[in-house]
Design a protein that fits this description.
- The chain is mainly α.
- It contains two helices and two strands.
- A two-stranded antiparallel ribbon has the order 1-2.
- A hairpin with a 5-residue loop joins strand 1 and strand 2.
- The protein is flat.
């Protein structure tokens, strides 16, 4: 398999996925490797709660207790 090979040669890529890739302009394996999302957010920088400022942040926490309840039409929310 080469970078110029079509994406449908990859294991697990069927006709429906080939259609989706084609709509995104991805035809070859090279295109797939170089396809990046429009927006990428990096969540690897963990902030302690005492240093949180407005904006996007990532914190690490331990959940001690969680409750769930049912709302309309049997939807369960935790």
């Amino acid at each position: 398999m080469e970078l110029t090979s079509l994406v449908d040669e990859l294991a697990g890529v069927g006709p429906e996925l080939v259609k989706r890739f084609t709509n995104l302009g991805v035809k070859t394996i090279h295109d797939l490797i170089n396809f990046f999302p429009r927006r990428y957010e990096d969540y690897s920088d963990i902030t302690t709660i005492e240093h949180i400022k407005p904006g996007l942040v990532t914190i690490q926490a331990q959940i001690k207790q969680a409750k769930g309840h049912y709302v309309r039409r049997g939807l369960h929310i935790t």
